[in-house]
Design a protein that fits this description.
There is one protein chain. The chain has ten helices and four strands, in the order ααββααααββαααα. It is mainly alpha-helical. The protein folds into two domains: about 130 residues, Cytochrome Bc1 Complex, Chain D, domain 2; about 80 residues, Cytochrome c-like domain (Cytochrome Bc1 Complex, Chain D, domain 2, Orthogonal Bundle), CATH 1.10.760. A two-stranded antiparallel ribbon has the order 1-2. Strands 3-4 form a two-stranded antiparallel sheet. The longest helix is centred in the first third of the chain and has 24 residues. The two termini are about 35 Å apart.
């Protein structure tokens, strides 16, 4: 999920403070506009959302651009969702309305600001039940007073985010999209594994093409989490 309109990417060439404030104001205005639209569309009568899956999808697809304390993400490419929705909640917006705002913004991505008219959140980043789960999850935690980041558990993170692509016998995963970690990781240092996670195309395992593993883990994981995950893999690989 890229910036919140939920919309555009942060442009490094933009002149700091003033334009950043304009982005925030523009994003908050978009929240209000989307909320007004949601208010006219009626209630969501779909299936009960899966908040755990919503958190997983948010981390995978949105965390590289958005800060959200409840998800443990801190990226600054797009607006801070806690900040944006804290203001919205203070103005009386409830969680159901926030959920509708998120769905509306994902379905209709727009530029983050007039200065970035060519920068959009990818269309159909999540849709259907996945979108319902993500929107409901964001609505359950964004801007909530006193919300705490989740406790990071490397085995659980690996099983959820990596096991579909990699074999790791200790984790019970059997994915074959990427290399068999029981075969390629033994003998590597935690630092080497950490680099492979944050920059997966820097050294590609023979037999696998470039661009298969997402390069976003270096952004969605904090430095401490990245170190913990690398240490877990170093100690677990090979059975």
């Amino acid at each position: 999920m890229n910036p919140f309109t939920i919309g555009g990417h942060k442009n490094p060439s933009v002149n700091g403070g003033h334009k950043h404030r304009r982005r925030v104001i523009w994003a908050l205005g978009a929240v209000a506009a989307a909320a007004a639209l949601v208010g006219m569309t009626g209630c969501d009568l779909g299936p009960e959302p899966d908040l755990e899956r919503g958190q997983q999808l948010f981390t995978q697809k949105c965390g590289s651009c958005h800060a959200l304390t409840g998800a443990g993400t801190s990226a600054e490419v797009g607006p801070d969702l806690d900040f944006a929705f804290k203001q919205a909640r203070a103005s009386g917006m409830d969680s159901d309305t926030i959920e509708g705002v998120v769905e509306s913004q994902v379905e209709n991505p727009r530029p983050a600001s007039p200065e970035q008219v060519d920068v959009y959140m990818p269309a159909d980043l999540v849709k259907g039940d996945d979108l319902n789960d993500v929107a409901a999850y964001v609505a359950s935690v964004a801007g909530v007073e006193g919300i705490e980041p989740p406790v990071f558990a490397p085995p659980q993170f690996f099983a959820t985010n990596c096991g579909g692509c990699h074999v790791l016998s200790q984790a019970g995963t059997t994915g074959t999209v990427g290399p068999n970690l029981d075969e390629v990781l033994p003998g590597q240092s935690a630092q080497q594994i950490e680099m492979s996670i944050s920059d997966p195309d820097a050294q590609i395992t023979p037999g696998f093409p470039a661009g298969v593993m997402p390069p976003s883990f270096g952004q969605t994981l904090t430095p401490q989490q990245l170190k913990q995950l690398a240490t877990y893999l170093q100690q677990s690989a090979g059975g």
